[in-house]
Amino acid sequence: MPELPEVETVVRGLRPLFVGQTIARCAHASPLMIDADSRNFVKQLSGRKCLRIDRQGKWIFCRLDGDDTLAIHLGMTGRLSVEPFDREILPHTHLRLCFTGEKNELRFRDPRRFGEILLVNGESFEERFGPNRLGPDALSIKASHLSACMESTTRAVKAVLLDQRSLAGVGNIYADEALYEARIHPGQPGRELTKDEIQRLATTVRAVLKRAIQSGGSTIRDYVDASGEPGSFQNKHRVYGREGKPCKRCRSPIELDRSIVSGRSTHWCRVCQMNSYQETSDSHSGSRVTKA
Ligand SMILES: [Zn+2]
Is 139 helix (H, G, I), strand (E, B) or coil? Predict the structure, then answer.
């Protein structure tokens, strides 16, 4: 699933092409993906100017004149691409936007349809994306905010990082990478983190995301940016996708665990990330930890 660095890379590719441009027409909007009467959606988009393209977490916000926002989430398999308007339209193409005077159009394709396309006005934007629904962007996350998210929760620190209401943009890859760099056990309850650990975690979250953006994000399965280029940060992962391979710090094998955060695969180093914590259960999972 595209996370913050991949979405940022897509946004950086779209801005120079479409900011300041006017949508001549919406050539196609699939009712399967549009959460409204799609004919009305098509009508509302025509003639609108794109003032800016923002990103918060994994959401892309195309700000239109008239205080409306076209909000797009790539979900699992969503892809925004810039293509000549006469190029073959692939199956699962759910949105096509043609801009005035442009030979290329913007297409949104999403085979698995976990993505979202919303057209929201100023008021409903606040309801849908206000601070109660979407946390601050992880790229500039502050230790004080992270501390407030962690201080009273017994949830695993990794689960808090993945919660988009706490901070927006971190998914499975970058949660694992940031926790490894900060030497924090992914299953450690949020409220047991020390001040130092929270400070370290805020720093590593920002640093890992920045480095990933510099590499154009991570391509695990099929992610490519708006011009079709894959990312290369997957070659620099220290834990994600490296199960069984030696830790780059201590040479112990990186472990893959599905019980630390249920339903998610967690990659971590039992030696480097145990730190001042030790397991209390005899489970090999390392999911239950307490202070040593
Ligand atoms: Zn290690």
Answer: helix
d(C-alpha 288, C-alpha 188), whole Å: 8
Element (H, E) at 39: helix 38-45
Identify the pLDDT of residue 221.
Answer: 84
Would the CA dihedral through 45, 48, 53, 55 be positive or negative?
negative
Tell me what pLDDT residue 222 has.
85
Question: Is-contact 220 173, C-beta < 8 A?
Answer: yes
Query: What phi and psi, each to the nearest 5 degrees, are found at residue 115?
Result: -75, 175
Residues lower than pLDDT 50 in the chain: 281-292
Q: Whole-model pTM?
A: 0.93
| Residue 260 DSSP label | T
Could you tell me the distance, in angstroms and rounded to a whole number, from the CA of residue 131 to the centre of ligand 1?
A: 36
Give the integer Cα–Cα distance in Å for 205 and 190. 15
Q: Which residues contact 238 (CB under 8 A, 6 or more apart)?
A: 177, 180, 181, 247, 248
Domains along the sequence of the chain with CATH:
4-129 (3.20.190.10), 138-291 (1.10.8.50)
Record the tokens describing residue 179, joined without a space: 């926790």
Ion ligand 1 — residues with CB < 5 Å: 247, 249-250, 269, 271-272
CA of 255 from ligand 1 middle (Å) equals 10
How far, in Å, is the centroid of ligand 1 from the Cα of 125?
A: 44
**Which residues are marked as active site?**
2-3, 58, 264
Strands 79-84 and 266-268: unpaired
Distance 249 CA to ligand 1 centre (A): 5
Is-contact 11 37, C-beta < 8 A? no
Q: How far is the CA of 247 from the centre of ligand 1 (A)?
A: 5
pLDDT of residue 275: 67
